[in-house]
User: Fold these one by one.
Assistant:
Number 1:
Amino acid sequence: MNGDTFKINVEHLDFHYGDFFALEDISVGIRQYATTAFIGPSGCGKSTFLRCLNRMNDLIPETKVEGKITLDGNDIYAPDVDTASLRRRVGMIFQAPNPFPMSIYDNVAYGPRIHGTTNKAQLDEIVEKSLTRAALWKEVSGKLNTSGLALSGGQQQRLCIARVIAVDPEVLLMDEPCSAIDPTSIQKIEDLMDELKSKYTIVIVTHNMQQAARVSDWTAFFLAEHADRPAKLIEYDKTDTMFTNPSDKRTEDYITGRFG
Amino acid sequence: MSKRLANNIAISVLWVAAASTVFVLAWLLAYVVVKGLPALSWSFVTQWPTGVTASGGIFPTIVATVYVTAVGFVLVIPVAIGAAVYLAEYAASGRFVNVIRFAADSLASVPSIVFGLFGLAFFVYALGFKFSMLSGGLALSLMMLPLVMRTTEEAIRAVPQGYRLGSYGLGGSKWQTVRRVVLPAAAPRIATGIILAMGRAAGETAVVMFTAGMAINAPIFLTDPGRTMTSHLYVLAMEGISVKNAFGTALLLVGMILSFNLFARWMAGRRG
């Protein structure tokens, strides 16, 4: 697509869950330091596609990936790739906030610790920096030793963002990060995404088209036209263009609320 | 008979059946308390049995009971938790897993006296550990194994999948995820299962009679023999030595096991 360099490049990806053919022939380039939104009706495979980008689908038995996905030009499905190092570079925020049942501090320090940081001063610094970047430091700086589970849903989701930032990833995958939290927190997370994209490459799955329009620079529209057929990438363009002047009739119908 | 009358009779019969559970427990406890309380005193707990009527206290049997249960506890934990982690986190469901589950269930249904006999033949004689805390603890750990293993496996399966995904998403390996997230999250339930199993072990008679021996002795080393409270109770009652002290021992034992169970319930209520 017009000669840009892509952080992640996907070519002709097919995805199967057992006998079920879920995604067919997806090709898409994800741009660095920008936010890309995946939209489409539920069940269209956008979350499945997101989980291909850091190989989280490997955890589900009997899944099959064909095609090619590269990160900075390197094939992430090559046999010598270590999924743990891949997931460290391509972090993930889940639909439901999932802080560990431990203190706020230990939640954020978890990633650095498993990757070998044991120095207390260094950990303190990472925890403060990550919570600050996730716009949560002011609210929790005085109670770092309380359980992460004691926070509100919106705070928990920002804690999960801080937890991912703490391992210094290059890409943030967000799987409907706002679907389980309150409107005020959604506003905070959207503001946060706007700041984070100067340093990270962000990919967000959302079923909320207004959100996609607000937060993303690029939008990809996925659709499975029949329940028993695999989903395809229908259209991929600049968000402004997609929402004002889509080139595919199906995109227009979806965006204007005619189905989905 | 009207429908309404039949209904009321059915409810009454079912209620009586349900209430009788509570009644049996209350009756049994009351009986043990009434018969055992006269024997209880500070010296009963702190002194050694003396004379042909075993008057005096039961101190060494309390030590042996606690000792042999603790040995069983220490021995069962690594094996039971290791097996449970393997089953719940690593093993893909298949033939081998089914075999392990079937083995655990079968082990749980083996009569305790058979564990005792096996312990006598294998630990006491074949391995030459003699009647000792070690032999008793080993035999008890075999008996506790399926119980601790199954409760631990259930505790691990009850840990929300989101915790695991969170760890994998940060680049955690399987082992890091299990050790740092899953096991701590499952710990209160695992502890509950272990405490219940210890209560069962402390109340076990047949297993320890055959393996820890019947010598009245306050064991210090693993190789020392010792008569547990349950074995002592058996001898006092069956040989007609002192029914009063048998009930005193029973009361103390029931009290210990009941507090184990209450502690386990408290642990279970604390989780989350």
Number 2:
Amino acid sequence: MKYFGKKLFTLIMTLFLVSVAAFLAFQIIPGDVVTSILGTEATPEREEQLREELGLNKPPVVRYFSWVGDVLKGDLGVSYRYSKNMNEMMPVKELVGDKLPVTLWLAAVSLVFIIVVSIPLGVLWARSASRATDKLGHFLDAALGVITQTTMAIPSFFLGILVTYLFGILFKFFTPGGYISYKEDFWGFLGYLLFPALSIALPKIAMTARFLRNSMLTELKSDYVRTAYSKGCTRRRVLYGHVLRNAMMPVVTFLGMIVAEIVAGSIVIEQVFGLPGIGRLLISSISTRDFPVVEILILYITFVVIFVYFLVDILYRIIDPRISEK
Amino acid sequence: MIRIENLSVAFDGTEVVKNVSLELKEGEILGVVGESGSGKSVTALTLMGLVSETARLTSGRILFEDVVLREAGKPLDKELYRKYRGDYMSMVFQEPMTSLNPTQRVGRQVEEVLKLHTGLQKEEIKARVLETFEAVGLRNAEKVYGSYPHELSGGMRQRVMIAMAIILHPDLVVADEPTTALDVTIQNQIVELLRDINTKEQNAMLFITHDLNLARRICNRVVVMKDGCVVEQGDTEEIFQHPKQEYTRRLIEAVPSRMKKRVSVMERPAAGGGAESNGMSGTGSEQNSGSANRTVLEVRDLSVFYRDGGNSLFSAKKKHCVVEGADFEIYRGESLGLVGESGCGKTSLSKAILGMNKDITGEVVHHTTRPQMIFQDPYSSLNPTKTIGWLLQEPMRAACALDKSLSMTKADMEAAAYDMLHRVGMEDKYFDRKPSQLSGGQRQRVSIGQALIMHPGFLVADEPVSALDVTIQAQIMELMQKLQQEMKLSYLFISHDINVVYHMCDRIMVMKDGKIIETGETEEIFRNPKMDYTKLLLCNS
């Protein structure tokens, strides 16, 4: 219980600091939402009027806290930039609402890819690398080394272009630029996410598999492995029954660390595949100084990342019984 | 029953075991003794088929009853070995902490042996495990069954290992230094347990150890190994009393034992037994100038604490007292021994004395400048990327950086480093070598040199010989005594090995659970211990 309290406290503190940082960044970077809406030709009176409407003439501290107060009440504010129709401002909630799930699902599918592919791959790799006398093992070890190295070196947006060309245009597995909303057909939607997710996941799969391989090779040198053999365990039993769980501990931490990267990566990949996620919204909102939208997006991303860290922490405790003691 | 014939094992073309022949009979404990690198562990691991795959058998064979387990020129028969391991032969390892899988409950780990070799039902298996746990002296077997290794003490873990080894009543148990990582009192219990099992089960036991006293206590026959060869083998008492080979004799002599005459170099006050102050005749004037001048260290009512719960934001950190009310002094030229089991606060006390632990109450007064420390592990305590010469000069550089008036030229430092190299008994050629090119004993000489280069009057030596082989141990102890005489040093000598302390020290302090429970002259403590705990320590080693 104390543990959860501590985690909750960290979450709130982080969200607070991140929102302050984003707010401050908007004060410091040059550019003005009013100019960006009205253009440079507007009269000073018109500018002043708009400022009044948006509440921008109040001091920054007041603006920040009134914003925080609204958010806590569930009112996420309205966009400075977008409007619903001529008379109504666009609420941030609606603007972000149907875009955020796309990004989160993309990240989730990527993560599933990473876990499902990299763990068996890492185990296979460690198995071949640990056979000192086996020719095939040596070959596999070297081959996987080269393949993963190459995959890691390619930036994911370029990988996205390659995947589009290969699977979209050559093999016609999917229609480049096509998209089905998750509201219409959820499975069709997931289908469209597969290839973008693959582009995000490939370099991470290579990294995770390599990490697991090294971790398993280290564990294979441990004393308890010798004990297991001395009991009469087969090699398979030693690997899966004893080594894998111990070797997973650093890998779980590593996976937690790359989650943030996946979320960031999905923003880029959305652009390449033309998915209506928050990527484009975030970029355009930053360039037009649409503060309420940016703040909410950043807070969402922060929340997701911290939540995943928390899951990783719990997973770690399940794997390693020594942690919960302390 | 088990025969090893002319066994030779090579790693990358270098033979580490050469022509070793052994025979083990039922109900017998055969000791294999030797220093590190003598090939005793490799022999045992080869017998068990556990030696790494890069090792090659260049000659000989291993017979288990009449079955050939392994033969030179033939590949390792993994299937055959798998059937034998756990069922007919099993092994107990040195490190009970790392030899158990940290993420599996120990009950399951022991059960695995039964699952692999028998077709028993789940309930039967569990009953068998609990029964065996009780047989190896684990009280509350049910609770142990569901524990993870880190929840058990070192002695309990080793009992679990033993339970795992004997659960199927194998004909052969190989014990590779089974007590080395344990405290003396626990050591004794484990040795007794192994002997009881051997008597009860009438199995054969191969007992590998570097500790000759231990081998003498438990083994029926002993094999002495050196550089991969068997030097001598025979009945234990025969070997110990009438060693035929020069090496065996040297090995036995190097073992610190209470049977041998102690050499003390302490400078005694005129009133006390001054007969032993050999080589210190020129210091008469100091002896007369009263006891105040002779004290190098005073510790008054010293308590050392450590705080728990490092990163909690709200709760106050819990304060634990690891050393309580220590009160003693060390005199000039004296070696004060500090003995006690692991976790009793020896190291915390020594750190507090050196000012490395600030969380203390009480008083520590130094009457010498720059007390120094010698560490236990000469492998990890020297920076592996630097040369010996650089390492020896480092304390001087540090001192110059602190105190600008202490200007030393590069040549001065180098000369001092060379001088120290000679003092610790090493040749000039080692000056430009790296620690990795040195043996353990040589490295420990370098760390002693490092500690002495600024001419401290007082040294804290934390288990300085524990990581070394017996013959090297004897050399280092001799060196420390020689330097003590030459440089009029005082030592606080920390050790868990009471025999080493007997040899090195003039007075002994016994520590238990953070308290100093007994202090006295070495002879007095050994002849006439007052506390029960001291008696226990003495009779267990």
Number 3:
Amino acid sequence: MDSQLSHSVRLTAHRRGGVGRRDFLRTLLPVAGAAAGWQLPTSGGYRDVLGLHAAELQQRGKACIVLWMQGGPSQLETFDPKPGHANGGETKAIDTNVAGIQLADNLPHLATVADRLAVVRSLTGREGEHQRATYLMHTSYLPGGGVRYPSLGSVVASEIKQPNCELPPYVRFGGGRNQAIAGGGLLGTTFDPFIVNVAGRSPENTTPTTEPTRFRDRLQLAARLQSASGMSDVDEHRRLYEQASQMIMSPHMQAFDTQQESTEVRESYGTSSFGAACLAARRLVERGVSFVEVELNGWDTHDNNFVRVGALCKQMDQPFAALLKDLGSRGLLDSTLVVWMGEFGRTPRINPRGGRDHFPRAFSAALAGGGIRGGQVLGSTEAGGDAVKDRPVSELDLFRTIYQSLGINAKKENMSSIGRPIKIVDGGEPVTELFG
Amino acid sequence: MKSTVRRRALGTSVALMGLVLGVRLGGNLATAAEPVPPRQAAAEVDRLLNEEVFRVNPATQLAPRSNDEIFLRRIYLDLVGEHPSPAEISAFALDPSTDKRAALVDRLIDDPRYGRNWARYWRDVIMYRRTAEQALASAAAAEKYLTEQFNRNVGWDEIAAAFVTASGSVFENGQTSLYMAQGADPNDVASEVSRIFLGIQIQCAQCHDHPTDRWKREQFHELAAFFPRVGLRRAGFAAQMPSITLEGNDSAPLVRRGMGTFGTGSQEHFMPDLKDPSSPGKQMTPVFFANGKQLSSGSTDADRRSSLAEWLTAVDNPWFAKAFVNRVWSELVGEGFYEPIDDLGPDRTPSAPQTLDYLAAQFAASGYDVKRLFRTILRTAAYGRESRSRRAPDQPPFTANVAQRLRADQLYDVFASLMGYDPDAGMPQTPNPLQRFNNGARGQFNLLFGYDPSARREDLTTTIPQALTLMNSQLINRVVSARTPSTDLSKLIQAGKDDESIVLELYLLCLAREPNEAEYAACLEHLKSTPDRAAGCEDLLWSLLNSKEFLYRR
């Protein structure tokens, strides 16, 4: 490195043609000092602890929270139990607060909010491989055809994001690996999810590694150097840095910090990290975020299904129920659609390892809020769960229903990179019985 | 590569008709018998551009020739994917010889980093359109294979043929990566072979006749009919390595089945009946749409794929040379003759047709000599001009170079170099290639900063997560640290350099240029006003790494 240094210093002297460094400094300092800085957040200290005013909280429109059960959750141990049939295994059914509706005994908390839930038992899909089905249930398309289809969250963000919201319009808790699947696709990286790996605290890279004042100084220095460089076309870069730095210094970032909630509220969501993410999702939606996806991984129960699904339901049941109650008590449930789903269901027949395998032919999803009428079960499966008995709902129908709830025209066409029109959903019909 | 094809009488006459048709469709290349030397070819390219674009367009205002500093960083990033070192910057600036730019091109194109840089580019071309994440398991093999081919300067025709006729372990034979990326699905493989090697988006005709081009649905499925007998086979684990092989099978081809399992498929490709999706559809014979040549049904997998490889790369198929030239030109000059760069036709007009035809003809005549094409383009005045913003549609093309966003690997290497680290040290030791690719620091970085090289560049912008990483991540904190002994910054401070030298060095390391006087002034003022000098230096480095200029090659 030393020899490189002396090279460079000689070069500088050579290039300057003898102008002394003190001279040029004297000449140029005032000019450089006047260089315009970036517009920086001016209020108080970094990430001020400010209470949110009611008016701010009202600046939001419709929103959607997807509770994504990665791996393919068993419908028989959740929303479509089959007690009394050999396929049902050891899972029992319990009554709910709606007469005539029963859920699996793994879901005691959800049984208390069944009046808010619409359970779809007749979902029928066309893909039984994890990646492809995950793609399908995020985009409504199977992969291929040279098109990168945008995910549900990206479409929602691009269609209904709140213009003044300082937070990212599409937040995803967990699943960094699924970035390619759950991304903006042809809508561009602007609509990729903002991924949070650990729920409950500040997301990765949103806390400066230096003191707040030094961070501000750095931003100002960077802005000053950028303008001194004389480079053109820097406006977009400047705006992005303004946006990013405003975001992380915004009091709204507290939405990620669930410790801001009372002990009572936190305890209502249980102790799982899925629960913390559900609570954070409510806090985000409250502050104008349009789409939040919360992932719970581990549903690929090829063996030991009953124990494993029971443990997963313990993590999922209480937060899901708490989320619906909490949204309801805050008057947010009418404008917020909550969807529980995974990429497919599981085989009704129990395999020799006490597990269930992939089964897209007949499985369940649950919806609440966003104009969905709670307290109903739509469709049913045969006694053994092997097939849909009535009111089949395709994944396209499900997507049409979600978009209808959010007021998004699913027939709208976006252009692929080569100018090919791609409908948000190609086919299907909204399930009208679910509304009103 | 000679195919032993039994053509039926009908097939032969169709093939002959197709030959005539092919000429009409693609426009024949004015085939040059002997390629001219790059210097001469470059001059001809500039002459043609002047004749067909600049002279006839009154709005033409050519950007001046870029200075040595800009040219040096540009050529380093374009050829070897890394910054020049401060010593190289000094040496180049002080070199008085007039042909130093051409000499530099000759030196860098034989640097082994050249092959690696372009291998990573093509790895991304293939991988960004993958239909399953598992395909990333073959990414490292693809990079290794392509690095060797580019460094040995194997012809592009041989490389393309190897990809089409590939077989064997997807973790060892990088040529298999295109099939792996598409799960060996005949429709998806056909789409990608056409898009990548011909720049033709025939997949739009998969479900209906192409809305704007003249390709018919049948032609798409005739192309897919080259691939029904090749499949991926999972052969379990051997020595803790998952084993997946790509195999042709003429009796019982392997296919993916609906429920995530593998099974036996049909020996032939069928075009689905849109009116009756449950019927098997129409059996298709393999026909190559670009020249109309065909095989009989029942042909072996080896015949199908070797015939396609031969026809695809034949000199009478103008798309093959044009697609490659268009891509390389676009990467180097900043704008393609056709945009998007993988959508050539057949009914689109390039922005400078004679220039493209000339370059493509030279490329074909040289036996698809990739290094020679680089040497030619890099010697043109069009490449060497200063860069400007992307032009408006009514402005003439190629009057300036256009700034290009650095690819993730290039950024990562600059960071690694500033940290004083081997960029790929600390790679996970797992034998599973997928985990190795994804979990390494480079893989994680690529996940965030990578982009599809075929995407329209004007659509690429910095994202919020990228900005947050550049501002606040542990990675950046380590890169700018004045206290970690291995970093360039701490070495500069340890060496007792004065403020001005440190400012100069940081600019050379981050932007490969000297600071201008306003920048010097701002930096020195900052250092003066910061009580902790090391912290002040860290601030400077942080600011440069968060500039737009750092993320782009000008």
